[in-house]
Please model this.
Amino acid sequence: MATTIVPHPMRTAVEVSELRKGFGEGRMRIDVLRGVELKARGGEILLLVGPSGCGKTTLLTLIAGLLEPDSGTVKLWGEPLELLSSEEKTAFRKENVGFVFQQFNLIPTLTIRENAAIPLLIRGMAEKQAFARAAEMLDRVGLGNRLTERPGKLSGGQQQRVAIARALVGDPKLLICDEPTASLDGETGAQVMEILRANALHPDRCTIVVTHDHRIFKFGDRIAQMRDGTIESLEDAPQTESVRGIVPGVRG
Ligand SMILES: Nc1ncnc2c1ncn2[C@@H]1O[C@H](COP(=O)(O)OP(=O)(O)O)[C@@H](O)[C@H]1O
Ligand SMILES: [Mg+2]
Model:
C-alpha cells in the first residue's frame, strides 16, 4: 500500500536519526554525514550553520528525499522517507516542499510571473489560475508591479524574492533554503528573512535555512551547529545581532 505523508501540526515536522552518507569508494571515500541527529518543529525556522564542506547541503538533499542515505532515517511528520517509492517522494515534494537556493535558479527566458508559477504548472494547475496565484505571491513579496519582466532586469534581492515567491506559491509545508541571503547585501537579506519569518509561523509549516550569515541569525528560532558531519549543538537563536564569532567558521 502506498504510504503518504500528511503534514500535521501535532507531529514533529522533521526528525533525522543516525543519518550517514558518504561519497566515493576506497581511498577516495569521504564520509560526509556521520550520524546526524536533528529535529525541526512545526512553526519554526531552524537555522543550520557550519563551515563550508561540513555537509549542510548534503543533509538538506537527504531531508528532501533527493538522495538516499547510506543508513539512518529521515522522518517527515512521523513518516519514514525510506518507506516511500521514488514516485511517492517526487509526489510529496511537488505538493509539500519548496526550495530556495543561493543562486536563485530562475529561468532567464521566462517572465517572473511564469517563473513563480512553475510549481503549480508542474502540479497540473491550469495556466490562468497558476499565473493568478503567482501574481498574488509576487505581490506579497513586493514585486506585483514587475510581473512581465524577466529576471535579468531585476536586482539580486528582487530575484531572490521571485525565487521565494516560486518556493511559497504552492503553500509548501516544508521550506528548505540553502544560503538564501549569501548573494545579498545586509538590508536585502533581512527583507528576505522577514518574508520567510512571516510564512514560517503556521504550526504545520517547517522552515530550514542553511546559512553562513550571522546577520540573519535573529530571524531564526533555533540554531543547529554542524561540524564534521554531525550536529554539534542545537540552541535557541540569539535575539540580537551581536553574535558574530560564536559560530566557528562563520565569515565575519
Ligand atoms: N555528489 C557528491 N559526490 C562527491 N562528493 C560530494 C558530493 N556532494 C557533496 N560532496 C562532498 O561532501 C562534502 C560536503 O558537501 P556539502 O554538503 O555541499 O557541504 P556544505 O553545504 O556544508 O558546504 C564536501 O567535501 C563535498 O565535496
Ligand atoms: Mg552547501
In short: Residues 14-236 form a domain with the Rossmann fold fold (CATH 3.40.50.300).
